[in-house]
């Protein structure tokens, strides 16, 4: 029986659709059969997204970049603790589990309630049904010296004040941890009222509030944050970006309209 979404942010549907769509392509760069299974068992008309190929490519590239960074971290730290903030219906643990890591998926109670219809907790996999700003979730995590924090598709919906407070709390709570996060350009925040996919066309209430000019600026938030590197979406799978790939050769366009994954370390 298909499950209906009620009272949960529908933004979790877009990444789910992206991964399932990519999995069904004849030439693909991510494969997520679990996403296909979940999408087929949620009562939602996903055909509404069919024409949104730039969003699909963007999130598919994001998924690949985060997967690759997480794989490297797990290879270097086989018994790591991974904290996935704003997990939605993400399936990364089931795709990357090495049999040793401990993984925590954190999201609002409504999202976790839906997750539990498709995932089961184990000794090494836990779901935490709390707001990321309810910092009691930190007490629910059993950490070790190797911690990776993932923030995918979430920070841009918070204000600068909220993001700053969150990063300061993470630095304070997880010494020597690493973090990989998605960031949008600051210029897109001003244009978020015109976000066709998220707000107008699909009646999904979600407005951008936070963006950055470059990842190194995050070092200004806390002197214990070290910027390591970033990966720009337009630099990957250029053939899939169609005509956009030509515009992305212009630095001004690339930095104004392209998202990136930023890699940080806390000291």
UniProtKB/TrEMBL annotation:
The keyword Transmembrane does not apply. The keyword Transferase applies. Keywords: Methyltransferase, Transferase. It holds the Pfam family LCM. One of its GO terms (molecular function) is methyltransferase activity. It comes from the Archaea. One of its GO terms (biological process) is methylation. InterPro entries: Ppm1/Ppm2/Tcmp, SAM-dependent_MTases_sf, TcmP-like. This is Class I SAM-dependent methyltransferase. It comes from Methanobacterium spitsbergense. The lineage of its organism: Archaea, Methanobacteriati, Methanobacteriota, Methanomada group, Methanobacteria.
């Amino acid at each position: 029986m298909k499950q209906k979404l009620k009272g949960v942010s529908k933004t979790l549907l877009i990444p789910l659709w992206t991964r399932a769509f990519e999995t069904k392509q004849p030439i693909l760069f991510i494969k997520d059969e679990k996403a296909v299974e979940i999408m087929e068992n949620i009562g939602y008309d996903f055909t509404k997204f069919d024409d949104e190929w730039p969003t699909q490519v963007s999130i598919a590239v994001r998924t690949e970049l985060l997967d690759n960074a997480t794989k490297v971290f797990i290879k270097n730290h086989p018994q790591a603790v991974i904290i996935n903030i704003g997990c939605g219906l993400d399936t990364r643990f089931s795709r990357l589990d090495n049999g040793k890591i401990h993984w925590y998926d954190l999201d609002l109670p409504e999202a976790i309630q839906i997750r539990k219809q498709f995932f089961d907790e184990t000794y090494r996999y836990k779901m935490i049904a709390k707001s990321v700003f309810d910092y009691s979730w930190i007490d629910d995590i059993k950490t070790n010296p190797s911690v990776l924090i993932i923030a995918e598709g979430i920070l841009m919906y918070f204000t600068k004040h909220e993001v700053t407070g969150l990063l300061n709390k993470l630095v304070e709570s997880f010494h020597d941890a690493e973090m990989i996060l998605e960031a949008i350009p600051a210029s897109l925040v001003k244009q978020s009222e015109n976000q066709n996919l998220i707000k107008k066309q699909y009646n999904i209430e979600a407005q951008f509030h936070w963006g950055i000019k470059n990842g190194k600026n995050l070092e200004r938030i806390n002197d214990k944050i070290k910027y390591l590197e970033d990966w720009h979406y337009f630099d990957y799978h250029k053939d899939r970006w169609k005509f956009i790939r030509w515009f992305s050769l212009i630095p001004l366009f690339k930095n104004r309209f392209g998202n990136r994954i930023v890699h940080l370390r806390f000291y």
